[in-house]
Amino acid sequence: MRLSTAQIYDQQMRGISSSQASWLKVGEQLSSGKRVVNPSDDPVAAAQAVVLGQAQAQTSQYSTARGFATTNISQEETNLQQVTSVVQQAQTLVVAAANGTLSDDDRASYAQQLTAVRDQLLNLANTTDGNGRYMFAGYKTDTAPFTQDANGDVTYVGGTTAITQKVDASRTMTTNHTGDQVFMSLTSNPTVEPDGSASESNIFTTLNTAINSLNTPLQDADDTTKDAASAALDKTNRGLKNSLNNVLKVRSELGTQLSELDNLDAKGDDTKVNQTTQMSNLVDVDYTGAISSYTMQQTALQASYKVFSDMSGMSLFQMNT
């Protein structure tokens, strides 16, 4: 079989083109740091990298979600810490106001102080976060969750569903409790009334019971009226104790969730490191091997150039001239 000069030329050019493509490919890997630049470079690794990339994106999303959850829970805990102090202040005032030797003016003074405490508590219940959203309104974050009428009676008008956040593949937690869960609920074992009736769950109603009683003059009152005033303060004491226990229960839940978020963050960091390592093993270039291959491909290309140059000089046309 005879080979024409054109065939030999084409064969040599294909060889050079192949060597040059291989050399440039390794150079691309070195410059990009990636062994798999296109799916055709390693179809199996490329497919696995797509799946792993989705897992990495999910891990990042959960990390961001935990950041939001931590912020919201921390803000609620800070607010409830103030609520706890206010309720304890109210307890101190009610105990002091129960002194039977106080004058009507003294009682009225305590009523005024408790009114200020109630208003302070209402302000905390209607507090907003850094974005202007009401903290205890559930999903109705654009409207104040508590309203107060002219008589001082406070009503909850916020949402009935607490805000939750999915912080891991299998974990969803409450990041903002509703106002009725905090200020109008009791624990599973509250102190009941002496007659066995249900305890008052609305902390604002509890405070109003004491305020109304202290605003009632007792100087010329009969024993029945005085006994009723004393019973009202006793009921307020029980109510405040029950409400405080409920607030502390919510705070305990918040503290547990903050601890859990720390653990989930640590787990997420480990997962992120493992995923990054797996991705690197799939698509990143081995610089030692790539540099060696680059040098070999460069040598092969130079050899191809040399062979082509030598073969070109062996043309019959060259020999006949």
In brief, what are we looking at here?
The protein is mainly alpha-helical and 321 residues long. It is built from eight helices and four strands, in the order H-H-H-E-E-E-E-H-H-H-H-H.
Report what the structure shows.
It comes from Erwinia typographi. This is Flagellar hook protein FlgL. The protein is mainly alpha-helical and 321 residues long. It has two domains: 54-277, Up-down Bundle (f41 fragment of flagellin, N-terminal domain); 286-321. Helix content is 67%, strand content 6%. The strands form two sheets. It has a two-stranded antiparallel sheet. β3 (163-168) and β4 form a beta hairpin. α3 packs antiparallel against α5. The two termini are 26 Å apart. The model has no long low-confidence stretch (mean pLDDT 84).
Tally of DSSP helical segments: 8
CATH class of the largest domain: Mainly Alpha
Q: Trace the largest sheet across and list its strands.
A: 1-2
Which shape, going by the Cα principal axes? rod-shaped
Secondary-structure element sequence? HHHEEEEHHHHH
Taking all residues together, what is the mean pLDDT? 84
Q: What structural category characterises the helix and strand content?
A: mainly alpha
Strand content: 5-15%
Largest sheet: 2 strands, antiparallel
Number of separate domains: 2
Return residue spans where pLDDT drops below 50 for at least 5 consecutive residues. Answer: none
CATH topology of the largest domain: f41 fragment of flagellin, N-terminal domain
The level of helicity is 55-70%
**How many E-type strands?**
4
Oligomeric state: single chain
User: Can you identify the CATH superfamily of the largest domain?
Assistant: f41 fragment of flagellin, N-terminal domain
What is the C-alpha radius of gyration, as a whole number of Å?
A: 39 Å
Q: What is the correct CATH architecture of the largest domain?
A: Up-down Bundle
InterPro entries: Flagell_FlgL (IPR013384), Flagellin (IPR001492), Flagellin_C (IPR046358), Flagellin_N (IPR001029)
Family: Belongs to the bacterial flagellin family.
Keywords: Bacterial flagellum, Cell projection, Cilium, Flagellum, Secreted
Domain Flagellin C-terminal: 242-314
